[in-house]
């Protein structure tokens, strides 16, 4: 299964601090070493109000957590929006938090972010859903082959 790149481990205190301040109230976050080793992506279960994320070690894991938090904080489980718009909003949330908290975002991580939005844009294009220009602009600078396969 595809996952993003590995980056150096972050200071655990920094990770814990960001986790504590950005986790959505009323939601449970389940970290998983298995998810980190075999996939890396996060999932938000709105029925159970659980965010499933990789074990939080590096900036890629933190980015995954903040992306899922972004879906909750931007109200994506309360109103219906096109998939690509939700992915773009979740990505902007995640990157802005990382930047606001002074966490270095490697160029490759930014490329990952663009690719996530690009994939979502392409799916919505196939469904004839009008594409938000901001999401399109972010996606247009993406690349195709960055995923490292395990
Ligand atoms: Zn998402």
Key attributes of the depicted protein:
three-stranded mixed sheet, 150 residues, two-stranded antiparallel ribbon, globular, mainly alpha, 51% helix, single chain, 6 helices, binds zinc ion
Written account of the structure:
It contains six helices and five strands; from the N terminus they run E-H-E-H-E-E-H-H-H-H-E. With 150 residues, it is mostly helical. The chain has one domain. The strands form two sheets. Strands 2-4-3 form a three-stranded mixed β-sheet. Strands 1-5 form a two-stranded antiparallel ribbon. Strand 3 and strand 4 form a beta hairpin. The N and C termini lie close together (6 Å). The C terminus is likely disordered. Bound molecules: zinc ion. Zinc ion binds next to helix 3 and helix 4.
Largest sheet: 3 strands, mixed
Structural class: mainly alpha
Mean residue pLDDT: 90
The termini sit apart by 6 Å
Order of helices and strands: EHEHEEHHHHE
Anisotropy-based shape: globular
Number of strands: 5
Order of strands, main sheet, comes to: 2-4-3
Low-confidence segments, given as residue ranges, are 144-150
Summarize the structure.
The chain is mainly alpha-helical and 150 residues long.
